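Subject: sequence -> structure tokens, single chain

Hey, anyone have a minute? Need the predicted structure for the following. Not urgent.
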Amino acid sequence: MGDAFASAQPGTSAAEMGSDPAFDPIEDTLPPLLLGTYTPKIDAKGRLALPAKFRTLLGRGVVLARGQERCVYLLPFREFRRMAAQIQRTSVSNREAREYSRVFMSGASDQVPDKQGRVLVPQLLRTYARLKDDIVVIGVGTRAEIWDRQTWERYLEQKEEEYSETADDILPVVDF
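Reply:
Had a minute. Here:
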């Protein structure tokens, strides 16, 4: 059977899944996509209520880590493991790889959401990203990012023009 059937309900046979028109073995092996923009608050204890749409997609646990541009990455545990393995495959003789690994891994914190879907954003990460209570959580595909709301709005404003100019460079030509 293989990983293509890993998301099946217990007791569902491969034959039953293959006859289901909604079943796509390639799609079912891809990581979930975290999409959208949300504006939750961080409470006085540093807890963040995960957006409801993310809760089932994130699985049993998440890892929060330093992100680029002073945000906090919110990664499904599986995605964090994939990234960590990729980082660790680089040679320890590569100075940039060692430095990146130190900064990324030393600030990482694994969390299991509580019954209300909240995770604790450690003080280290709140300080790094300058997070107060007014934040934005954005879905960025296989990860989410937590930003100070004003920082995110400034960033988005600065990048808006570049966004339309770089689309052709980033996305391959797609025939519809």
